[in-house]
Amino acid sequence: xxxxxxxxxxxxxxMTSLVGGARVPKTHPRIEAYGTLDELNSFIGWLAAETGDxxxxxxxxxxxxxxxxxGAYLATETEGAESGISTEAVGQLEEAIxxxxxxxPRMKGFVLPGGCPEAxxxxxxxxxxxxxxxLIYTLSETATVDHAILVYINRLSDLLFALARHECRIRNxxxxxxxxxxx
Length: 183
Hints:
By secondary structure, the chain is mostly helical. The protein has helices at about 30-50, 55-75, 85-100, 115-140, 145-170, and strands at about 15, 25, 110, 175. The strands form two sheets. The protein has a two-stranded antiparallel ribbon with strand order 1-2. A two-stranded antiparallel sheet has the order 3-4.
C-alpha cells in the first residue's frame, strides 16, 4: 500500500471536507464541534498517560474510542448516520462516576482546579468537555444531532470532575476549596 501524504493543500483557502465529500468553511459549527472533541480527546490522552491509576487509564482510553466515533459522526453531514452512542454507554459513565465518587470524601465546598498536576489536567479536560457540549448544542440548532451524544458529553464532564478529585485523593493531596473571602 502506498503511503499517503499528510498534506493535500485542499484546506489552504479556509475550506475543508466532511465525511461524504461536502466542502464547508473551517469555521462551520460542525467543524467547531468535532474539532473541540478532538482537542478533548488529546487532553484525555495526556491525562491517561499521566495518571498512575490503571483503572482510570482504562476508563479514559475507552472514552477516547467513543469520542473518536462521536467526532466521525459529527463530521458526517448525512442525515440518519449512526452515532454509536447508546443509553448503555451513558450508563457506563454513570457507573464509573458512582464508583469513583463513592470512594471520595464529601465535598467541603466548591473545588478549584488544582491540587496536583493530574487533577489540574482532569479539570482542563472537564472544561474543554463543557465547551464541546456547548458547541454540539449550537450545531444541534441547525442540524440533527443524536441526543444520546449530548447526554454522554454531559456525563463525561461529571466523570472528569470526579476523576480530578480522585487524582488528588490517590496522591494524598488536598483539594483546593474556594473561599468566598479570597486568599
